[in-house]
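Subject: design request, 284 residues
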């Protein structure tokens, strides 16, 4: 396990705030969740300093603010409008790393999404490679072979946590058959990098016997680890983690089942912009 910073000092200027946010969320070891846990006060202070600087035209602060929106830290998650607004301003202001975020916005034309994400490779390679892989998999002009190459680059950089939603593709052969050992190995690595989503998926595998021999004890271990990690992130204001914790509470996985607590987390996540939480409330 890589070392990570502890108890980062609270920033006092917008420049220090932007540096803090960008260092945390670009950290290649995938331990930003733990850094957030150790340094929540500093990150909250940073988020408060960024908006005025961004409004005044500071391109680096604009990018850091876009990152906060995209990560769901201290600001509503799924705020794609804000991600696009601030990443566009930052990109046009010369911060090429913001190009990786522009690929998420509907306002960005398909060809420009590729160009912007490519421009970000030199400044934030993990986000840029991940976005390029996603674009190659979802666009009409994409190339699955190039998507796989981008995902391999992310794995090689030690950031398996960044591609958890795309692991099925990464671990499949040309015929679509998933290599169970590769898949489970990537999941375990991502889980060790504090990806709660990877922990849940790994627990699901052990619970159902999917890709691995069923093991209720290991399933419970990873559900409990995911509940702890989601709880850490939910306490720091991340709506997606509120939703994730709500799912575990609803099903009684890793924690004692508590429908009312689950609904409360769903409501909080939905109020903060999490579409999955809105759908969950509609279906309950």
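Subject: RE: design request

Done. Sequence follows.
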């Amino acid at each position: 396990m890589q070392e990570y910073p502890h108890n980062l000092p609270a920033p006092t200027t917008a420049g220090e705030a932007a540096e803090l946010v960008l260092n945390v969320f670009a950290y290649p070891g995938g331990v930003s969740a733990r850094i957030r846990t150790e340094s929540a006060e500093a990150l909250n202070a940073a988020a408060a300093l960024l908006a005025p600087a961004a409004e005044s035209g500071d391109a680096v602060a604009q990018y850091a603010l876009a990152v906060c929106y995209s990560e769901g830290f201290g600001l509503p998650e799924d705020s794609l409008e804000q991600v696009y607004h601030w990443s566009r301003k930052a990109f046009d202001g010369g911060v090429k790393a913001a190009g990786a975020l522009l690929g998420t916005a509907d306002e960005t034309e398909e060809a420009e999404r590729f160009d912007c994400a490519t421009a970000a490779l030199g400044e934030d390679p993990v986000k840029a490679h991940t976005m390029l892989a996603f674009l190659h998999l979802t666009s009409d002009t994409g190339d699955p072979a190039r998507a796989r190459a981008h995902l391999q680059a992310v794995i090689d950089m030690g950031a398996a946590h960044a591609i958890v939603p795309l692991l099925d593709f990464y671990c499949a052969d040309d015929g679509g058959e998933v290599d169970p050992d590769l898949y489970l190995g990537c999941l375990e690595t991502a889980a060790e990098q504090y990806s709660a989503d990877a922990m849940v998926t790994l627990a699901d595998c052990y619970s159902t016997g999917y890709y691995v021999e069923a093991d209720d004890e290991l399933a419970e271990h990873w559900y409990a680890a995911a509940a702890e990690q989601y709880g850490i992130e939910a306490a720091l204001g991340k709506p997606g983690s509120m939703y994730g914790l709500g799912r575990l509470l609803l099903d009684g996985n890793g924690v004692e089942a508590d429908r009312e607590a689950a609904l409360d987390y769903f409501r909080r996540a939905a109020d903060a912009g999490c579409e999955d939480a809105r759908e969950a409330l509609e279906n309950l």
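Residues 216-235 form the longest helix (20 residues).
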